[in-house]
Amino acid sequence: MRTKKSRRNPLLAAGLAAASLSALAFATAFAASDAPDASTARDPLARYTQQKPRWQPCDAKGPDTFRCATLKVPLDYADPGGRTIDLAISRLAASDTRERRGVLLLNPGGPGAPGLDLPVDPRLVFPEEVKRRYDLVGFDLRGAGRSTPVSCGLTADEQSDHPYKAETFTRDVDRVRTVAEKCRAAAGDKLPHLTTRNSARDMDVIRAVLGERKISYLGISYGSYLGAVYTQMFPERADRIVLDSATDPTRIYRGMFQDMAKAAEQAFTRWTEWTARRHATYQLGDTPAAVRETFRNLIAQADRTPLVVDGQSLGGDDIRADNSTFFHVRKAAERVVALKKAADAGTPAPPARTPDGAPEGAPEGTPSGTPGQAGEAGEPDDNYASIAWSFMCADTRTWSHDPERYRREAIRDTARYPLYGDFAAAVTPCAFWKPGNEPQTEIDNEAGALITQNEWDSQTPLFAGQAMHRALRGSRMLTVAGGEGHGVLYAPDGNSCADKAATTYLTTGRLPAEDVTCQATAARK
User: Fold this and answer.
1) What is the percent of the chain where pLDDT is above 70?
2) Residue 103's beta-bridge partner residues?
3) Is residue 25 scored above 70 in pLDDT?
4) CB 249 within 8 A of CB 467
5) CA-CA-CA-CA dihedral for 9, 327, 490, 521, to nearest 10
6) What does the pLDDT look like over 252-286, one tens digit per residue?
7) Cα angle vertex 467, ends 493, 232, to 5°?
8) Residues contacting residue 160 through CB under 8 Å, at least 6 positions apart
9) Please, are residues 430 and 392 in contact by the beta-carbon 8 Å criterion?
């Protein structure tokens, strides 16, 4: 049982939650028949685009038509004859060969969330009209999951979110520098090539291998940025593009963190107003100011003595670290009621934790119980965090390498956005990361895409989706008014209006004539 909540960076946790991957029996697709020949001289990528995937059953839980394979792609597309890496892909075949249109490629976000199981993931309930017309294709991003995974050997503490504090800033700088150094030591030869641009190239290899002239795509959260980059790099090969919970392509990535702080403050204000109107139910205050004061007092008390809720010991920073809390007003009120009960009960906290998450005095290597699959030595699986920082640091050259700039911005944003600003503006490993091998992609095209966005999104705010809409000039924007949470489409309790618009586009190619507003359903409020 976890006794302390791990403070994971919210962008690392964006998109669909990364489910544990089953052991998959992958066949090596780069067989003797795929060896370079004369065509390679004419087309350096022919050895990759002409591969013949050897499809094998993915695992026991999927249907017979759910198959997996492993492709080879170049580590460096500028040197296609050089080192190769694996790319794990999956396919759920279209249910009706007569109506089949092509491939719908899927990405869950992250960057780095495993996408291999997405075609059969119960959190994505595709309508029959879509499953009849498309092969649903998942893949693990390069460096993630089963695609030549990167591991930097990060401890639980090095994967966690830390707020800016003047008294810990020097240690925080040393910690993120260590993360960058560990990644450089473990995978320095790969890091310059772990980028969204190269992942877009990987997508185009998948397209060619599957024999498609164009591909359709559904990307969630970070996956929206990956999809937008694909439309910029391969506009003639992008078919029907759906971007769910879109990022702002001009704010990759430092600005995205800081935008989360702005959105969290807006959501907190909305929550205080909602909760004050329901004082009889929640007893947290009969005015927004009183509700705000109740919450601040709980944070102050938790800073002094951690509160125990559901077996977790939560300090004030642990409570504030989840910037998604207040986007779900009812859930937030219930959570704060539970915190208040714990504060009133005065339950003693479990033993203090060491920086790697293990109890003080515990033998070295004691499992910390933080998210991720534990390795043989009890360490948390750091692939997700490792690949996320790899992409975010290498994708753009806008990260400052001056720690003092992070200090100044953190002080500024703590004052602007007291709920979360000190987390969002804190120093990151990117301050000590070597740049990627290419500059950031500027998104500016006329791609016909459908962008879907909740009004109250936990990770990619509405104004971020609107910025993506401006960058993709041929797109249409669908906003769920009153919609809460991260991810709009095809959820088990999803929004029928939004789902219908996406399905119409995917099955007919017709975008809405103009931007659309759907109303949130009661189940998602």
Assistant:
1) 85
2) 135
3) no
4) yes
5) 170
6) 999 999 999 999 999 999 999 999 999 999 999 99
7) 100
8) 6, 7, 8, 9, 370
9) yes
Report the pLDDT averaged over residues 383-397.
Answer: 96
What's the confidence (pLDDT) of residue 16?
Answer: 39
In this predicted structure, what is the pLDDT of residue 42?
A: 81
Instruction: Please give the Cα distance from 159 to 386 (Å, whole number).
Output: 8
pLDDT at res. 169: 98
Lowest average pLDDT, out of 68-77, 364-373, 514-523, goes to 364-373
In this structure, what are the phi and psi dihedrals at residue 445, rounded to the nearest 5 degrees?
-155, 180
Tokens of 253: 């990535």
Any idea what the Cα angle at residue 236 is, between residues 235 and 239, rounded to 5°?
A: 85
Q: Could you give the CA distance from residue 232 to residue 235 in angstroms, rounded to a whole number? A: 6
Q: In the block, which residue shows the tokens 């989706």?
A: 465
Q: What's residue 458's pLDDT?
A: 81
Cα dist from 223 to 15, 218, 219, 315, 459, whole Å: 8, 8, 4, 33, 13
Fill in the amino acid letter for 68. Answer: C
Backbone phi, then psi, for 452, in 5-degree steps? -115, 135
Q: How many residues does the chain have?
A: 525
Q: What's the CA gap between 341 and 18, in Å, rounded?
A: 31
Q: And the tokens for 518?
A: 């759907």
**pLDDT value for 435:** 87
Sequence letter at residue 386: S
54 neighbors 29 (Cβ within 8 angstroms) = yes
Cα distances (angstroms) measured from residue 444 to each of 113, 397, 460, 511: 26, 19, 20, 19
- What structural domains does the chain harbor? 24-141+196-250+446-525 (3.40.50.1820), 254-345 (no CATH)
**Per-residue pLDDT tens over the stretch 364-375:** 222 222 333 333
Q: What pLDDT shows up at residue 60? A: 63
For residues 321, 322, 323, 329, the Cα torsion angle rounded to the nearest 10 degrees is: -140
Mean pLDDT, the chain, integer: 87
Which residues lie closer than 8 Å to 428 by C-beta, 6 or more apart? 176, 254, 257, 389, 393, 399, 406
Rg, the chain, Cα only: 23
Looking up tokens 């959820």, which residue turns up?
Answer: 491
